């Protein structure tokens, strides 16, 4: 469904992405792992044109775009299909929860307001925030804000949702509620590309895991292949560092 | 002062001064109408670091900030007629520049100086709204224009309003310098009235009171508007 070829991106002289290929099928839940600075965020941002790649190509269903010089029209078309959940939620602070969720529908897609409200309420009930329609983001906990962020993405009924470390800005006790919501929408068949350091999510929910380091994909496979019998030395080193001590006993 | 205040003159002149209010307000409003969009655009060139223009903007701001308004008035009031004379001569336009109403000079000077103040007000207010919200707006399909209009500007406005209020009040007070261009505003009108019988104390007292009332009313209006805009901000408190 989504095919990405040869994505390159530098900031100044610093080459962050050095030719990344990626292909995602409908219904996939793909987790990207990798050390800090390996270019995971940059990759997701390039896919949604929040960052302009230096080179690269994406095919998305019938849309076929160059990531470096896409036309406005193509960018808009791609953004209709890809939703983004941000590390820092990035909710619209001057809008209520429900307004946050329907903004993209009403303004971005010209969906009639009444219909958008229906869709928005449904999305909010999926993330367990049905009683919070009229609250402002500042009145919510971090976990609740991120769930609104997820509802905002879900409401757009995108072909794929990109998550950039959706739980890493949260207090530890709030991580669970967000992961549960993500698990639920994954189980509904939503296609997801998730950057996360939550290994449990990668192991239990993903059907494919990608390990990135230094701006390239080092290794990819099923969670079993990556966690239990990784082939590459760099993958092993990374897992050793991030997994609990006793995990090695199970390998 | 041995005879005390001339109360009749005080009251009569109060209304003379009051009759200058429309001119002061007109200058204030026209200057704001010119300065607000101009300052907003220039603030954006600073935020987006538009090469060349942003440097020019910076230069302009420090130039206007670093000189007293009265000097700016003298410069505009003395140099613009010379420029215009030369220009009109060149294109054979038959207009006597010395008949141009001083209010036009007031519009020029005050919109220039207010623009410089508002550039910084807008720039700092816009930068308080996280860049992430603009990205989020893009990601849900809003154009940059829609994102600014619906998400960024409403939030920046709440932050900027107290400073816009201060700028407006300062502008109203600065119009009193219009007397230097023979602009028939509050100060000039009252002073002229005082010239007749040397009742300067009464005249200045009237001027004082008129500005005080005018500025208080404007400030109160801003407070009301701020309260109205702050609805969502209350939740932030
Ligand atoms: N706008 C930018 N300008 C300059 N350098 C940038 C910019 N954005 C990212 N970088 C650099 O690119 C590198 C990769 O960043 P990126 O955020 O993609 O890594 P990441 O894999 O997401 O890391 P993390 O796990 O810490 O989120 C970092 O070294 C970062 O400093
Ligand atoms: Mg990152």
TrEMBL record, chain A:
Residues 2-239 form the ABC transporter domain. InterPro entries: AAA+_ATPase, ABC_ATPase_HisP-typ, ABC_transporter-like_ATP-bd, ABC_transporter-like_CS, MetN_ABC_transporter-like, P-loop_NTPase. SMART domains: AAA. It is found in: Cell membrane. GO terms for molecular function: ATP binding. It is a peripheral membrane protein. The keyword Lyase does not apply. CDD domains: ABC_HisP_GlnQ (cd03262). Keywords: ATP-binding, Cell membrane, Membrane, Nucleotide-binding, Transport. Coiled coil: none annotated. PANTHER family: AMINO ACID IMPORT ATP-BINDING PROTEIN, L-CYSTINE IMPORT ATP-BINDING PROTEIN TCYN. This is Amino acid ABC transporter ATP-binding protein.
């Amino acid at each position: 469904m989504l095919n990405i070829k040869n994505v390159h991106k530098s900031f100044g002289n610093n080459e962050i992405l050095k030719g990344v290929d990626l292909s995602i099928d409908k219904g996939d839940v793909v987790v990207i792992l990798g050390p800090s600075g390996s270019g995971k965020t940059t990759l997701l941002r390039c896919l949604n044109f929040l960052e302009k790649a230096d080179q690269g190509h994406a095919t998305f269903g019938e849309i076929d775009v160059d990531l470096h010089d896409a036309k406005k029209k193509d960018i808009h078309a791609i953004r209709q299909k890809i939703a983004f959940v941000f590390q820092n939620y990035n909710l619209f602070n001057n809008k209520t929860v429900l307004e946050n969720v329907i903004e993209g529908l009403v303004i971005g897609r010209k969906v009639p307001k009444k219909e958008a409200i229906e869709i928005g309420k449904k999305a909010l009930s999926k993330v367990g925030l049905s009683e919070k329609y009229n609250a402002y983001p500042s009145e919510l906990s971090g976990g609740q804000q991120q769930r609104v962020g997820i509802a905002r993405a879900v409401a757009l009924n995108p072909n794929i949702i990109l998550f950039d470390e959706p739980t890493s800005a949260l207090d530890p006790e709030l991580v669970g509620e967000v992961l549960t919501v993500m698990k639920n929408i994954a189980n509904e068949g939503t296609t997801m590309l998730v950057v996360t350091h939550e290994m449990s999510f990668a192991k239990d929910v993903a059907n494919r895991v990608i390990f990135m380091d230094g701006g390239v994909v080092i290794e990819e496979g099923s969670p079993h292949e990556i966690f239990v019998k990784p082939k590459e030395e760099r993958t092993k080193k990374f897992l050793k560092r991030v997994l609990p001590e006793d995990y090695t006993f199970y390998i | 002062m041995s005879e005390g205040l001339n109360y009749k003159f005080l009251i009569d002149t109060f209304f003379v001064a009051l009759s200058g209010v429309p001119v002061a307000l007109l200058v204030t409003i026209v200057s704001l109408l010119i300065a607000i969009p101009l300052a907003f655009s220039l603030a954006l060139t600073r935020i987006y670091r538009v090469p060349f223009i942003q440097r020019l903007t910076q230069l302009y701001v420090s130039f206007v900030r670093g000189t007293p308004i009265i000097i700016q008035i003298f410069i505009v009031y003395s140099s613009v007629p010379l420029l215009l004379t030369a220009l009109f001569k060149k294109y054979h336009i038959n207009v006597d520049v010395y008949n141009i109403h001083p209010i036009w000079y007031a519009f020029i000077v005050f919109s220039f100086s207010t623009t410089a103040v508002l550039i910084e007000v807008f720039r700092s207010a816009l930068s308080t709204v996280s860049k992430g919200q603009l990205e989020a707006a893009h990601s849900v399909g809003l154009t940059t224009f829609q994102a600014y209009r619906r998400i960024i500007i409403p939030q920046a406005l709440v932050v900027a309003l107290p400073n816009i209020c201060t700028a407006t009040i300062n502008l109203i007070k600065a119009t009193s310098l219009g007397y230097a261009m023979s602009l028939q505003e509050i100060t000039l009108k009252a002073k002229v009235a005082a010239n007749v019988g040397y009742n300067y104390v009464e005249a200045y007292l009237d001027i004082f009171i008129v500005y005080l009332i005018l500025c208080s009313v404007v400030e109160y209006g801003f407070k009301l508007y701020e309260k109205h805009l702050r609805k969502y901000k209350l939740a932030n408190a």
